[in-house]
C-alpha cells in the first residue's frame, strides 16, 4: 500500500508514504494520508506521529498523469479535496506531527510539511511550490509557514526550490542531518515528545492551533478557488500537457 501506519510500543506512530517512482500521490493516496492521521489522533495510545517517506523524495505533490488521463474535472476535484483533507488532517491531528523530509518536497509535500508541528530534514532535502508551471495554485499558505513572506513570494512566482539547510535559520526546520541519520533523528525528537503526559500534549496541540494567527484550512481553500478558475479557462490543461510531454521526453 502507498500509505502505511505503524504504532510502536513507545507511543510513536509512524506513517510512511511509499508510492514510486516519486511519491506523487493519487487522489486515493491523499485521502489515505488523511485517514492515517485521523486514525492516529483518535487512538489514545498514539502520543506523536512521524510522517516520513520511502524512496527518492518525501513527496512530489499530485499525480499529474492521473489527472491528464482522466476525462472531465473529476480527478481535479478529487485531488483538490484529497489534498485539503490530508493537509487538514496533519494540522488538526490531536497529537504533534513530526515531518521527516528526505530529498524533494514539492507542491503537496509542502502542504503536508507546512502543517506539521516539527520538521527534521536530510541534507539532500529541498522544498518548492512549482504549481505556476502546471497552471495551478496552492500551498502558498503552507510555504509561508516555512519561510518569510517575501521569500515565499519569490519562490512561488519563480517556482524555485530552497534547500533544507537554508530553512534552519528561519526556525521552520529544526535540524538537517545526513540522510542515513534522518529516521533516527526524527524518532529521537518524537520519543522526547512521546515521553510527556499525552493528556497535556494533546491539550497543548489544541491550544496552539487555537492561537494560530492564520486559519490554514480557509486560506488554502481560498487558493484552490483560483486553481479551479485556471482549469475552467483551459490554462491548466495546456500547461500540464506540456509538463507531461517534457517529463516523458526526459525519461526516454
Explained architecture:
This protein has 252 residues and is an alpha/beta fold. It has a single domain (3-180, 197-250), classed as 2-enoyl-CoA Hydratase, Chain A, domain 1 (Alpha-Beta Complex). It is 48% helix and 15% strand. It is built from ten helices and nine strands. The strands form two sheets. Strands 1-2-3-4-6-9 form a six-stranded mixed beta sheet, sandwiched between helices. The protein has a three-stranded mixed beta sheet with strand order 5-7-8, covered by helices on one side. Strand 2, helix 1 and strand 3 form a beta-alpha-beta unit. The protein is globular and about 50 Å long.
Short summary:
By secondary structure, this protein is α/β, with parallel strands linked by helices. It has ten helices and nine strands. Helix 3 runs antiparallel to helix 9.
User: What Rg do the Cα atoms give?
Assistant: 17 Å
How many independent structural domains? Answer: 1
Instruction: Return the average pLDDT rounded to an integer.
Output: 93
**Any idea of the CATH topology?**
2-enoyl-CoA Hydratase, Chain A, domain 1
3D shape? globular
Low-pLDDT runs: 248-252
Largest sheet composition: 6 strands, mixed
Tally of individual helices: 10
Give the C-level CATH assignment.
Alpha Beta
CATH superfamily: 2-enoyl-CoA Hydratase, Chain A, domain 1
DSSP strand tally? 9
Strand order of the largest sheet: 1-2-3-4-6-9
Main structural class: alpha/beta
Helix content: 40-55%
The CATH architecture designation is Alpha-Beta Complex
Percent of sequence in beta strands:
15-25%
Series of secondary-structure elements, N-terminal to C-terminal:
EEHEHHEEHEEHHEEHHHH
* End-to-end distance: 28 Å
Amino acid at each position: 500500500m502507498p500509505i502505511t501506519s505503524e504504532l510502536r510500543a513507545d507511543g510513536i506512530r509512524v506513517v510512511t508514504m511509499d508510492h514510486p517512482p516519486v511519491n506523487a500521490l493519487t487522489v486515493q493516496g491523499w485521502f489515505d494520508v488523511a485517514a492515517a492521521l485521523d486514525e492516529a489522533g483518535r487512538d489514545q495510545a498514539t502520543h506523536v506521529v512521524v510522517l516520513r517517506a520511502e524512496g527518492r523524495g518525501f513527496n512530489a505533490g499530485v499525480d499529474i498523469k492521473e489527472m491528464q488521463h482522466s476525462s472531465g474535472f473529476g480527478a481535479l476535484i478529487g485531488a483538490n479535496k484529497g489534498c485539503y483533507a490530508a493537509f487538514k488532517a496533519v494540522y488538526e491531528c490531536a497529537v504533534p506531527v513530526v515531518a521527516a523530509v528526505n530529498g524533494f518536497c514539492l507542491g503537496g509535500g509542502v502542504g503536508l510539511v507546512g502543517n506539521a508541528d516539527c520538521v527534521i530534514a536530510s541534507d539532500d532535502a529541498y522544498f518548492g511550490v512549482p504549481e505556476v508551471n502546471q497552471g495551478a495554485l496552492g500551498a502558498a499558505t503552507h510555504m509561508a509557514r516555512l519561510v518569510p513572506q517575501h521569500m515565499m513570494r519569490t519562490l512561488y512566482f519563480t517556482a524555485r526550490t530552497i534547500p533544507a539547510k537554508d530553512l534552519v535559520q528561519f526556525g521552520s526546520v529544526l535540524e538537517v542531518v545526513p540522510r542515513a541519520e534522518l529516521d533516527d533523528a526524527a524518532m529521537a525528537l518524537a520519543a522526547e515528545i512521546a515521553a510527556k503526559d499525552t493528556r497535556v500534549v494533546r491539550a497543548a496541540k489544541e491550544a496552539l492551533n487555537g492561537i494560530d494567527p492564520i486559519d490554514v484550512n480557509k486560506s488554502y481553500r481560498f487558493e484552490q478557488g483560483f486553481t479551479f478558475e485556471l482549469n475552467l479557462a483551459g490554462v491548466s490543461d495546456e500547461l500540464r500537457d506540456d509538463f507531461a510531454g517534457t517529463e516523458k521526453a526526459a525519461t526516454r
